[in-house]
Amino acid sequence: MGDKNVVIITGGAMGIGRAIADRFAKDGSAVVIADVSGATEAAAEIAATGAQALGVTCDISDPASCSAMADATVTAFGRIDTLVNNAGLYSTLKLTEFKDITTEEWQRVLNVNVMGQALVTAAVLPTMQSQGSGAIVNMSSGTPFKGVPYLLHYVASKGAINAMTKALAKELGSAGIRVNGVAPGFTMSDGVKANPHQIEKLKDISVQARVIARDQLPEDVVGAVVFLASRDAAFMTGQTLVVDGGAYFH
């Protein structure tokens, strides 16, 4: 990696993604906010602190949009050192019995949560391979480890991300690219707060299951992401760290 660490955060305009972007910027990285909306505004706010930041409107389910975002990053900063695959569908999903989840809803969730991460990774991969280095951090969820009902399409999508993390780590290790994951618990992000149905159904159950019995905040997730992207984790790959206040041990 060069002196300036260049980090792409998908879904970085708000919530956990924004908290991650703020921390990388504070630590001196150049950050790229890739989001379907609000990316330019978020990047401007970060740049106002004196950090280097670029906002790119990006639909992670669209291959052309992902490629354009990666190209814009290289044009602006010359390299891509870290990708945080954070964007995905969750807070707007309705808790639904398995038998009532439609085929269209299954496809929508898998297209964004699984294919979206795959497409963004594919878009940045040529640059990382040419550098001979890179760190990818896939945002997963604690739900596949615990088995959470009424969100089977979401749980399945995040289980797929856990599997992809391991397989990609094997595939890309020889190119000097590390692939790890972070699996948060139920987090009081902006998106969750904007959808009270999630809080009503899941918050109390989630908090009661934790050893650290309080709300999980976006800032609680940031340290694990930054660590996995850093030189301190240079000999770690294929791992998924569960950050959920001790609700699940594995």
Automatic annotation (TrEMBL):
Belongs to which family?
A: Belongs to the short-chain dehydrogenases/reductases (SDR) family.
Report the CDD domains cross-referenced here. SDR_c (cd05233)
Coding gene? ped_2
Superkingdom of the organism of origin = Bacteria
Instruction: State what protein this is by name.
Output: (S)-1-Phenylethanol dehydrogenase
Listed A to Z, the keywords are:
Oxidoreductase
Select a single GO molecular function from the record's annotations and give it.
1-phenylethanol dehydrogenase activity
Q: Where are the transmembrane segments?
A: none
Pfam families linked to this entry: adh_short_C2
EC assignment: 1.1.1.311
> Entry's Gene3D superfamilies?
NAD(P)-binding Rossmann-like Domain
Q: Which InterPro entries match?
A: NAD(P)-bd_dom_sf, Sc_DH/Rdtase_CS, SDR_fam
